[in-house]
Amino acid sequence: MLFTFSxxxxxxxxxxxxxxxxxxxxxxxxxxxxxxKNMIMAKPKSVIASPMSTGxxxxxxxxxxxxxxGFTFGIEEAPITEPKEHQDIxxxxxxKLQTPPYRPLAEALNWVILRGSYTNRTIIxxxxxxxxxxxxxxxxxxxxxxxxxxxVTAAHVYVAKTSDYYLEMDQPTDTMSFKxxxxxxxxxxxxxxxxxxxxxxxxxxxxxxxxxxILSAAKDMAQLDGNTDFMDLYCGYGLFSFGMGENARExxxxxxxxxxxxxxxxxxxxxxxxAHFVAGKIDSKFIDKLPKPKGEEVILLDxxxxxxxxxxxxxxxKRKPRKVVHIFCGTDEIPRSIKEWDKAGYRIEEVQPLDMxxxxxxxxxxxxxxxxxxx
Length: 375
Description:
Blueprint: H1 5-11, H2 20-37, E1 60-67, E2 70-75, H3 84-97, H4 103-108, E3 109-116, E4 121-127, H5 132-146, E5 154-159, E6 178-182, E7 186-191, E8 194-199, H6 211-222, E9 228-233, H7 239-244, E10 250-255, H8 259-271, E11 275-279, H9 284-289, E12 296-301, H10 312-317, E13 323-328, H11 334-343, E14 346-354, E15 364-371
Parallel strand pairs: 4-5, 9-10, 9-12, 10-11, 12-13
Antiparallel strand pairs: 1-2, 1-3, 3-4, 5-6, 7-8, 13-15, 14-15
Helix pairs in contact: 1-2
Protein backbone atom coordinates (compact mmCIF):
# COMPACT_ATOMS: atom_id res chain seq x y z
CA MET A 1 0.00 0.00 0.00
CA LEU A 2 1.28 3.45 -0.92
CA PHE A 3 2.55 5.64 1.91
CA THR A 4 1.60 9.03 0.53
CA PHE A 5 3.69 12.17 0.56
CA SER A 6 0.88 13.88 2.48
CA UNK A 7 1.20 11.20 5.18
CA UNK A 8 4.95 11.79 5.25
CA UNK A 9 4.40 15.53 5.70
CA UNK A 10 1.94 14.87 8.53
CA UNK A 11 4.43 12.55 10.24
CA UNK A 12 7.04 15.32 10.05
CA UNK A 13 4.57 17.92 11.39
CA UNK A 14 4.27 20.12 8.31
CA UNK A 15 2.06 23.22 8.38
CA UNK A 16 1.91 26.21 6.06
CA UNK A 17 2.64 28.46 9.07
CA UNK A 18 6.25 27.32 9.39
CA UNK A 19 9.10 29.73 8.73
CA UNK A 20 10.73 28.82 5.44
CA UNK A 21 13.96 27.39 6.85
CA UNK A 22 11.89 25.12 9.11
CA UNK A 23 9.57 24.23 6.23
CA UNK A 24 12.56 23.08 4.15
CA UNK A 25 13.80 21.00 7.07
CA UNK A 26 10.41 19.32 7.37
CA UNK A 27 10.13 18.69 3.62
CA UNK A 28 13.63 17.16 3.56
CA UNK A 29 12.59 14.74 6.30
CA UNK A 30 9.28 14.02 4.58
CA UNK A 31 10.74 13.15 1.16
CA UNK A 32 13.32 10.83 2.81
CA UNK A 33 10.56 9.17 4.85
CA UNK A 34 8.43 8.82 1.71
CA UNK A 35 11.24 6.95 -0.09
CA UNK A 36 11.93 4.78 2.95
CA LYS A 37 8.31 3.78 3.60
CA ASN A 38 7.75 2.97 -0.08
CA MET A 39 10.99 0.95 -0.18
CA ILE A 40 12.60 3.01 -2.95
CA MET A 41 16.31 2.24 -2.74
CA ALA A 42 17.68 5.75 -3.19
CA LYS A 43 18.64 8.66 -0.97
CA PRO A 44 17.21 12.01 -2.03
CA LYS A 45 19.54 15.00 -2.07
CA SER A 46 18.69 18.10 -0.07
CA VAL A 47 15.66 19.98 -1.35
CA ILE A 48 16.52 22.94 -3.60
CA ALA A 49 14.96 25.97 -1.92
CA SER A 50 12.73 28.40 -3.78
CA PRO A 51 14.20 31.91 -4.21
CA MET A 52 10.72 33.16 -3.27
CA SER A 53 8.87 31.46 -0.41
CA THR A 54 5.76 33.66 -0.64
CA GLY A 55 4.01 35.52 -3.44
CA UNK A 56 5.65 33.29 -6.04
CA UNK A 57 2.69 32.07 -8.11
CA UNK A 58 2.44 33.43 -11.65
CA UNK A 59 -0.80 31.53 -12.27
CA UNK A 60 -3.67 32.09 -9.85
CA UNK A 61 -7.43 31.70 -10.05
CA UNK A 62 -10.73 32.55 -8.42
CA UNK A 63 -14.00 30.63 -8.72
CA UNK A 64 -17.06 32.84 -9.22
CA UNK A 65 -19.89 32.35 -6.69
CA UNK A 66 -23.29 33.95 -6.34
CA UNK A 67 -25.18 33.39 -3.09
CA UNK A 68 -27.67 35.09 -0.84
CA UNK A 69 -25.22 37.89 -0.14
CA GLY A 70 -24.45 38.48 -3.81
CA PHE A 71 -21.26 37.84 -5.77
CA THR A 72 -18.03 36.63 -4.14
CA PHE A 73 -14.82 34.91 -5.19
CA GLY A 74 -13.83 31.52 -3.85
CA ILE A 75 -10.10 31.35 -3.06
CA GLU A 76 -8.47 28.11 -4.27
CA GLU A 77 -4.84 28.64 -3.23
CA ALA A 78 -3.27 29.91 -0.02
CA PRO A 79 -3.23 33.72 -0.36
CA ILE A 80 0.36 33.81 0.94
CA THR A 81 1.50 32.11 -2.29
CA GLU A 82 -0.04 34.81 -4.50
CA PRO A 83 1.62 38.08 -5.58
CA LYS A 84 0.04 41.19 -4.07
CA GLU A 85 -0.59 42.49 -7.60
CA HIS A 86 -2.85 39.48 -8.24
CA GLN A 87 -4.80 40.08 -5.05
CA ASP A 88 -5.27 43.74 -5.97
CA ILE A 89 -6.65 42.77 -9.38
CA UNK A 90 -9.09 40.25 -7.91
CA UNK A 91 -10.25 42.85 -5.39
CA UNK A 92 -11.01 45.35 -8.14
CA UNK A 93 -12.83 42.76 -10.27
CA UNK A 94 -14.83 41.46 -7.31
CA UNK A 95 -15.90 44.96 -6.28
CA LYS A 96 -17.17 45.69 -9.79
CA LEU A 97 -18.99 42.36 -10.03
CA GLN A 98 -20.80 43.05 -6.76
CA THR A 99 -22.56 46.09 -8.29
CA PRO A 100 -25.93 45.81 -10.13
CA PRO A 101 -24.62 47.00 -13.54
CA TYR A 102 -22.19 44.05 -13.67
CA ARG A 103 -24.81 41.44 -12.71
CA PRO A 104 -24.99 39.90 -16.24
CA LEU A 105 -21.23 39.24 -16.23
CA ALA A 106 -21.26 38.01 -12.62
CA GLU A 107 -23.97 35.45 -13.43
CA ALA A 108 -22.08 34.20 -16.50
CA LEU A 109 -18.68 33.73 -14.84
CA ASN A 110 -17.12 30.37 -14.01
CA TRP A 111 -13.55 31.45 -13.22
CA VAL A 112 -11.23 34.43 -13.35
CA ILE A 113 -7.60 33.43 -13.99
CA LEU A 114 -4.40 35.46 -13.86
CA ARG A 115 -1.27 34.34 -15.70
CA GLY A 116 2.05 35.77 -16.83
CA SER A 117 5.22 36.82 -15.02
CA TYR A 118 6.20 38.98 -12.07
CA THR A 119 6.12 42.04 -14.35
CA ASN A 120 3.31 41.26 -16.83
CA ARG A 121 -0.14 39.97 -16.01
CA THR A 122 -2.85 38.55 -18.29
CA ILE A 123 -6.42 38.06 -17.09
CA ILE A 124 -8.81 35.43 -18.47
CA UNK A 125 -12.56 35.55 -17.87
CA UNK A 126 -14.02 32.06 -18.18
CA UNK A 127 -17.76 32.48 -18.91
CA UNK A 128 -20.64 30.10 -19.64
CA UNK A 129 -22.05 32.29 -22.40
CA UNK A 130 -21.19 35.39 -24.35
CA UNK A 131 -23.80 37.91 -25.52
CA UNK A 132 -23.96 41.67 -26.15
CA UNK A 133 -24.56 42.75 -22.50
CA UNK A 134 -21.74 40.52 -21.24
CA UNK A 135 -19.35 41.78 -23.92
CA UNK A 136 -20.11 45.38 -22.93
CA UNK A 137 -19.35 44.68 -19.29
CA UNK A 138 -16.14 42.84 -20.19
CA UNK A 139 -14.99 45.85 -22.20
CA UNK A 140 -15.81 48.19 -19.32
CA UNK A 141 -13.93 45.91 -16.92
CA UNK A 142 -10.97 45.94 -19.30
CA UNK A 143 -10.85 49.73 -19.15
CA UNK A 144 -10.61 49.64 -15.35
CA UNK A 145 -7.88 46.99 -15.44
CA UNK A 146 -5.73 49.11 -17.76
CA UNK A 147 -5.98 52.11 -15.41
CA UNK A 148 -4.59 50.31 -12.35
CA UNK A 149 -1.29 51.45 -10.79
CA UNK A 150 0.20 48.21 -12.11
CA UNK A 151 -2.04 47.65 -15.14
CA VAL A 152 -3.08 44.28 -16.49
CA THR A 153 -1.10 43.67 -19.70
CA ALA A 154 -3.77 41.71 -21.56
CA ALA A 155 -7.31 40.42 -21.15
CA HIS A 156 -9.11 37.50 -22.80
CA VAL A 157 -12.41 35.69 -22.47
CA TYR A 158 -12.97 31.95 -22.83
CA VAL A 159 -16.46 30.51 -23.32
CA ALA A 160 -16.96 27.14 -21.64
CA LYS A 161 -20.23 25.61 -20.49
CA THR A 162 -18.48 23.55 -17.81
CA SER A 163 -17.60 25.23 -14.54
CA ASP A 164 -14.58 22.97 -14.00
CA TYR A 165 -12.33 24.62 -16.58
CA TYR A 166 -9.53 26.77 -15.18
CA LEU A 167 -6.56 26.03 -17.47
CA GLU A 168 -4.58 23.78 -15.10
CA MET A 169 -6.98 20.83 -15.44
CA ASP A 170 -7.85 21.19 -19.10
CA GLN A 171 -6.93 22.98 -22.28
CA PRO A 172 -9.38 24.63 -24.68
CA THR A 173 -9.85 22.64 -27.87
CA ASP A 174 -12.12 25.12 -29.63
CA THR A 175 -10.06 28.20 -30.46
CA MET A 176 -13.22 29.95 -31.64
CA SER A 177 -14.32 30.02 -27.99
CA PHE A 178 -11.28 32.07 -27.00
CA LYS A 179 -11.62 35.84 -27.56
CA UNK A 180 -9.09 38.62 -27.19
CA UNK A 181 -10.25 41.74 -25.35
CA UNK A 182 -6.92 43.60 -25.55
CA UNK A 183 -3.17 43.03 -25.33
CA UNK A 184 -0.87 40.23 -26.55
CA UNK A 185 -2.27 36.81 -27.39
CA UNK A 186 0.85 35.08 -26.05
CA UNK A 187 2.81 35.11 -22.80
CA UNK A 188 6.59 35.14 -22.60
CA UNK A 189 9.28 33.76 -20.33
CA UNK A 190 12.77 35.24 -20.28
CA UNK A 191 15.68 32.85 -19.80
CA UNK A 192 19.38 33.59 -20.03
CA UNK A 193 19.71 35.49 -23.30
CA UNK A 194 16.46 34.23 -24.85
CA UNK A 195 12.73 34.82 -24.58
CA UNK A 196 10.22 32.01 -25.14
CA UNK A 197 6.64 32.63 -26.20
CA UNK A 198 3.76 30.42 -25.11
CA UNK A 199 -0.03 30.59 -25.49
CA UNK A 200 -2.25 32.09 -22.83
CA UNK A 201 -3.84 28.66 -22.44
CA UNK A 202 -0.54 26.72 -22.36
CA UNK A 203 1.04 25.18 -19.28
CA UNK A 204 4.06 26.85 -17.70
CA UNK A 205 5.67 26.51 -14.28
CA UNK A 206 3.70 28.50 -11.71
CA UNK A 207 6.80 29.45 -9.69
CA UNK A 208 8.85 31.56 -12.07
CA UNK A 209 11.56 32.10 -9.46
CA UNK A 210 12.39 28.35 -9.55
CA UNK A 211 12.63 27.97 -13.33
CA UNK A 212 16.38 28.66 -13.43
CA UNK A 213 17.01 26.10 -10.67
CA ILE A 214 14.96 23.31 -12.26
CA LEU A 215 16.68 23.87 -15.61
CA SER A 216 20.10 23.79 -13.94
CA ALA A 217 19.30 20.59 -12.03
CA ALA A 218 17.94 18.85 -15.15
CA LYS A 219 20.95 19.98 -17.19
CA ASP A 220 23.40 18.62 -14.61
CA MET A 221 21.60 15.28 -14.61
CA ALA A 222 21.26 14.95 -18.38
CA GLN A 223 24.90 15.70 -19.27
CA LEU A 224 24.08 16.47 -22.89
CA ASP A 225 26.89 16.79 -25.43
CA GLY A 226 27.43 17.05 -29.17
CA ASN A 227 27.12 13.28 -29.59
CA THR A 228 23.77 13.06 -27.83
CA ASP A 229 20.24 13.25 -29.21
CA PHE A 230 17.79 14.79 -26.74
CA MET A 231 14.12 13.85 -26.51
CA ASP A 232 11.98 16.32 -24.55
CA LEU A 233 8.74 14.47 -23.81
CA TYR A 234 5.71 16.55 -22.74
CA CYS A 235 7.76 19.50 -24.00
CA GLY A 236 5.03 22.16 -23.97
CA TYR A 237 6.40 25.32 -25.57
CA GLY A 238 9.98 24.05 -25.26
CA LEU A 239 11.16 25.17 -21.81
CA PHE A 240 13.63 22.30 -21.41
CA SER A 241 14.35 21.98 -25.12
CA PHE A 242 15.67 25.53 -25.31
CA GLY A 243 16.62 26.01 -21.67
CA MET A 244 19.07 23.09 -21.45
CA GLY A 245 19.36 21.46 -24.89
CA GLU A 246 21.85 23.79 -26.56
CA ASN A 247 24.67 21.22 -26.36
CA ALA A 248 22.67 18.34 -27.85
CA ARG A 249 23.26 17.20 -31.41
CA GLU A 250 19.55 17.19 -32.14
CA UNK A 251 16.36 17.90 -30.16
CA UNK A 252 13.04 16.11 -30.56
CA UNK A 253 10.20 17.73 -28.63
CA UNK A 254 6.93 15.85 -28.15
CA UNK A 255 3.65 17.23 -26.82
CA UNK A 256 0.02 16.16 -26.89
CA UNK A 257 -1.48 18.81 -29.12
CA UNK A 258 -2.45 22.46 -29.17
CA UNK A 259 -0.86 25.85 -29.58
CA UNK A 260 2.14 25.23 -27.32
CA UNK A 261 3.82 22.98 -29.89
CA UNK A 262 3.37 25.66 -32.55
CA UNK A 263 5.09 28.19 -30.25
CA UNK A 264 7.97 25.74 -29.84
CA UNK A 265 8.32 25.40 -33.61
CA UNK A 266 8.44 29.18 -34.05
CA UNK A 267 11.04 29.49 -31.28
CA UNK A 268 13.23 26.85 -32.96
CA UNK A 269 13.15 28.82 -36.20
CA UNK A 270 13.82 32.16 -34.49
CA UNK A 271 16.63 30.79 -32.30
CA UNK A 272 18.07 28.70 -35.16
CA UNK A 273 18.17 25.53 -33.06
CA UNK A 274 18.39 22.03 -34.47
CA ALA A 275 15.06 21.12 -32.90
CA HIS A 276 11.98 19.37 -34.25
CA PHE A 277 8.59 19.21 -32.58
CA VAL A 278 5.74 16.76 -33.10
CA ALA A 279 2.28 16.52 -31.54
CA GLY A 280 0.17 13.51 -30.69
CA LYS A 281 -1.40 11.53 -27.88
CA ILE A 282 1.57 10.35 -25.82
CA ASP A 283 0.87 6.65 -25.45
CA SER A 284 2.95 3.56 -26.17
CA LYS A 285 1.88 3.32 -29.82
CA PHE A 286 2.83 6.95 -30.43
CA ILE A 287 6.23 6.46 -28.76
CA ASP A 288 6.92 3.42 -30.95
CA LYS A 289 6.38 5.53 -34.09
CA LEU A 290 8.78 8.34 -33.11
CA PRO A 291 12.06 8.64 -35.07
CA LYS A 292 14.87 6.57 -33.60
CA PRO A 293 17.98 8.41 -32.37
CA LYS A 294 21.03 8.52 -34.62
CA GLY A 295 23.32 7.76 -31.71
CA GLU A 296 23.11 7.90 -27.92
CA GLU A 297 19.90 9.38 -26.57
CA VAL A 298 18.93 11.19 -23.38
CA ILE A 299 15.22 11.43 -22.59
CA LEU A 300 13.62 14.00 -20.31
CA LEU A 301 9.96 13.63 -19.44
CA ASP A 302 7.86 16.04 -17.41
CA UNK A 303 4.34 14.56 -17.49
CA UNK A 304 1.23 15.98 -15.79
CA UNK A 305 0.68 15.38 -12.08
CA UNK A 306 -1.25 12.15 -12.76
CA UNK A 307 1.79 10.67 -14.54
CA UNK A 308 2.32 8.80 -17.80
CA UNK A 309 -0.23 6.63 -19.56
CA UNK A 310 0.15 2.84 -19.22
CA UNK A 311 2.92 1.44 -21.42
CA UNK A 312 4.75 4.74 -22.05
CA UNK A 313 7.71 3.96 -19.76
CA UNK A 314 8.04 0.46 -21.25
CA UNK A 315 8.07 1.95 -24.76
CA UNK A 316 10.72 4.51 -23.75
CA UNK A 317 12.88 1.76 -22.27
CA LYS A 318 12.88 -0.07 -25.63
CA ARG A 319 14.66 2.96 -27.14
CA LYS A 320 17.58 2.14 -24.79
CA PRO A 321 18.42 5.74 -23.84
CA ARG A 322 21.78 6.39 -22.24
CA LYS A 323 20.00 8.27 -19.47
CA VAL A 324 16.50 9.34 -18.47
CA VAL A 325 15.54 12.39 -16.41
CA HIS A 326 12.01 11.91 -15.09
CA ILE A 327 10.42 14.96 -13.44
CA PHE A 328 7.58 14.34 -11.00
CA CYS A 329 5.19 17.10 -9.94
CA GLY A 330 3.04 14.42 -8.31
CA THR A 331 5.24 12.78 -5.66
CA ASP A 332 2.84 9.88 -5.14
CA GLU A 333 3.46 8.82 -8.75
CA ILE A 334 7.12 8.05 -8.02
CA PRO A 335 6.78 4.48 -6.61
CA ARG A 336 4.64 3.25 -9.51
CA SER A 337 6.87 4.82 -12.14
CA ILE A 338 10.09 3.54 -10.56
CA LYS A 339 8.69 0.00 -10.62
CA GLU A 340 7.96 0.45 -14.33
CA TRP A 341 11.45 1.79 -14.99
CA ASP A 342 12.89 -1.22 -13.13
CA LYS A 343 10.93 -3.57 -15.41
CA ALA A 344 12.19 -1.56 -18.40
CA GLY A 345 15.80 -2.13 -17.26
CA TYR A 346 16.57 1.19 -15.54
CA ARG A 347 17.66 2.04 -12.00
CA ILE A 348 17.81 5.30 -10.07
CA GLU A 349 21.08 7.19 -10.31
CA GLU A 350 20.17 10.43 -8.52
CA VAL A 351 17.18 12.03 -6.78
CA GLN A 352 16.91 15.83 -6.59
CA PRO A 353 13.83 17.26 -4.83
CA LEU A 354 12.96 20.86 -5.60
CA ASP A 355 10.53 23.06 -3.68
CA MET A 356 8.36 24.37 -6.49
CA UNK A 357 5.45 24.93 -4.09
CA UNK A 358 6.42 26.65 -0.80
CA UNK A 359 3.65 26.66 1.83
CA UNK A 360 1.91 23.87 -0.08
CA UNK A 361 1.82 20.09 0.45
CA UNK A 362 3.55 19.25 -2.83
CA UNK A 363 7.07 18.67 -4.09
CA UNK A 364 8.74 18.65 -7.51
CA UNK A 365 11.27 15.81 -7.82
CA UNK A 366 13.83 15.13 -10.56
CA UNK A 367 15.07 11.55 -10.83
CA UNK A 368 17.81 10.45 -13.21
CA UNK A 369 17.85 6.82 -14.32
CA UNK A 370 20.47 4.74 -16.13
CA UNK A 371 20.50 1.18 -17.50
CA UNK A 372 20.64 -1.39 -14.68
CA UNK A 373 23.77 -3.00 -16.16
CA UNK A 374 25.64 0.34 -16.08
CA UNK A 375 28.11 0.53 -13.19
